[in-house]
Structure prediction request, 364 residues.
Amino acid sequence: MKVEKNSDVMPPISGSSTLSSKLDRLVQTGELFEQVDKETVRCYACGHYCLIKKGKRGICQIRFNHNGELKVPWGYVAALHNDPTEKKPFYHVFPGSSTMTFGMLGCDLHCPYCQNWDISQALRDSRAGYTPKEISPEQIVALAKQSHSRCIASSYNEPLITSEWAKAIFQLAKREGFTCLYVSNGNVTREVLEYLQQHVDGFNIDLKTMQDKNYRKLGAVLERILEGIRMTFQMGFWLEIVTLIVPGFNDSETEIREIARFIKSISPTIPWHVTAFHPDYKMTSPPPTPPRTIIRAAEIGYEEGLRYVYGGNLPGGVRQFENTYCPGCHKPVIERVGYRILRNVLHEGGFCPYCEMKIDGLLD
Ligand code: SF4
Prediction:
């Protein structure tokens, strides 16, 4: 997860049972499930495909079976902020634009280094949780218009598990001309992608490791994430991948190269962001990722044939790896420091001004 605390995050609420009773009122009947029998449902909003009996909750804790129907989060945000689109990170979606970003509570994974754990681990960890602020889709879209956002994104917590709410917002947003985005862990299903196909333009997916044993520690299965990434690309969503490089977890040259090769095997046009870890939540012993590791990871990405590789979370500290280079003539076409665009020389439609090659992405 990728958000810094800011003033638009709602105040903390203590005690998961207080929060749970509040959230259980902010629901409606879901759409991403099938009735298995009178009392049992199967949710397919994420790759866990939870079988949920009457009165029970799914793994994410926020979708639950009430009298044989799946109830899903509705009508609130736990965080809402107009961020640079680069911060999501999307570097190939209207560079320099801003994105109205909303998040609810909960996640289907439990990464010990989550930077948004107080939002994502609500209902799992009694220290986590924010007061939900009730809001309508119309109000979110109106705020995006007032803020001159170009895009609207579901992020901060895992968007897949609150997809019905995102769809309600994005349906309105698309009519107003917004580009709609998901910042996800990639634990997708074919059903959720088909559900979102008309409403979501782009995904940013975390590819956290190539080791199944490590993915299982976070609550996911490697092959499902890899298949989810393939499916997302093949179904035509704009896709960018991010890998948080954590010392001792996924920072070996072999693993970094394996990730780059996997992305290339889908398409060299997929931008890859290698970002620096800082100690957070339950993972406090590894040191912050040194800039040289991020620079080396970015070099490996280019060596393996990816067209666009970026170093992140170290503004000004990763040499040239914050810039976009034309894959045709290798000249810089967008120069950045952190989320700030210093220079963008792309021609209308995203064409390189030097060799006229089209740069990949949602640029026009
Ligand atoms: S969204 Fe929640 S309830 Fe649905 S499959 Fe995933 S973890 Fe289970």
